[in-house]
Automatic annotation (TrEMBL):
Domain Adenylate kinase active site lid: 127-162
Comment, domains: Consists of three domains, a large central CORE domain and two small peripheral domains, NMPbind and LID, which undergo movements during catalysis. The LID domain closes over the site of phosphoryl transfer upon ATP binding. Assembling and dissambling the active center during each catalytic cycle provides an effective means to prevent ATP hydrolysis. Some bacteria have evolved a zinc-coordinating structure that stabilizes the LID domain.
Record-linked Gene3D superfamilies: P-loop containing nucleotide triphosphate hydrolases (3.40.50.300)
Name the UniProt record assigns to this protein: Adenylate kinase
Organism: Geobacter benzoatilyticus
Intracellular or extracellular location(s): Cytoplasm
Pathway connected to this protein: Purine metabolism; AMP biosynthesis via salvage pathway; AMP from ADP: step 1/1
Residues where Zn(2+) binds: 130, 133, 150, 153
Length: 215
């Protein structure tokens, strides 16, 4: 099953991808995680991407399309995948469509995380990420069992550089301008499935499960 998770920063895409990956055994492909790892390793791509990410802007389309093309060619995507945070522009969606068409693959569902922007600031300022495995936690809504440590791997938890109020506001504006048009893009193709992402982590999880099992 090939899925796209679409939604604004902090909507819960990464949080829910963990559950779907576990349940269906398909990998989560997060362009944000791949870019952050390139930044941490100071690769040429990471050096280029960092200044866009620090400013809350989108990294150029050709860079992310290249990342996804390479990642989808990997054999662990043969049984399906979750694209988390990609596509984010119409140009990226067109490139993905061409890529999948050429490989005889198709998207099953585009899950749109419907959430009011007013809750996102609180979700993102309280988010803590694992430095080793990238899992996200929250200081109020998803607390780790041991303060400052990841439940999955014991790694150190940290706050993302772009989870600062000013940068979050920029990321939300960028989402509204450049990414939200993808909702009608995929609705027109009959692929858009909306979930109410304002509820608890568990309620969002069951809403997604209903879509995936066709209820
Ligand atoms: P990226 O890493 O993709 O960030 P994002 O889209 O801004 O989304 P987030 O990861 O911040 O949010 P999420 O929806 O996954 O929320 P989460 O589950 O963590 O991108 C970062 C940057 O990389 C971009 O700004 C851009 O520069 C670049 N980039 C990446 N992809 C790109 C692309 N395709 N093109 C161009 N540039 C690209 O949840 C957030 C918090 O809320 C957590 O603490 C969680 O515990 C908590 N939470 C989750 N669900 C709930 C709930 N239901 N109730 C209460 N709390 C909840
Ligand atoms: Zn971890």
């Amino acid at each position: 099953m090939n899925l796209i998770f679409l939604g604004p920063p902090g909507a819960g895409k990464g949080t829910q991808a963990v559950f779907v990956t576990k349940e269906y055994g398909i990998p989560q492909i997060s362009t944000g995680d791949i870019l952050r790892s390139a930044v941490a390793n100071q690769t040429p791509m990471g050096v280029k991407a960092k200044r866009y990410m620090d400013d809350g802007l989108l990294v150029p389309d050709d860079v992310v399309v290249g990342i996804v093309e390479e990642r989808l060619a990997s054999s662990d995507c043969d049984g399906g995948f979750i694209l988390d945070g990609f596509p984010r522009t119409v140009a990226q969606a067109d490139a993905l469509g061409a890529m999948l068409h050429g490989a005889g693959r198709a998207i099953a569902h585009v899950i749109s995380f419907e959430v009011d922007h007013s809750v996102l600031l609180g979700r993102l300022t309280g988010r803590r990420m694992c430095r080793s495995c990238g899992r996200g936690f929250h200081v109020l809504f998803d607390r780790p069992s041991v303060e400052g440590r990841c439940d999955a791997c014991g790694g150190e938890l940290f706050q993302r550089d772009d989870d600062k109020e000013e940068t979050i506001r920029r990321r939300l504006d960028v989402y509204d301008e450049q990414t939200s048009p993808l909702k009608s893009y995929y609705a027109d193709k009959g692929l858009l499935r909306k979930v109410d992402a304002l509820g608890t982590i568990e309620s969002v999880q069951s809403a997604i499960q209903c879509i995936l099992v066709g209820r």
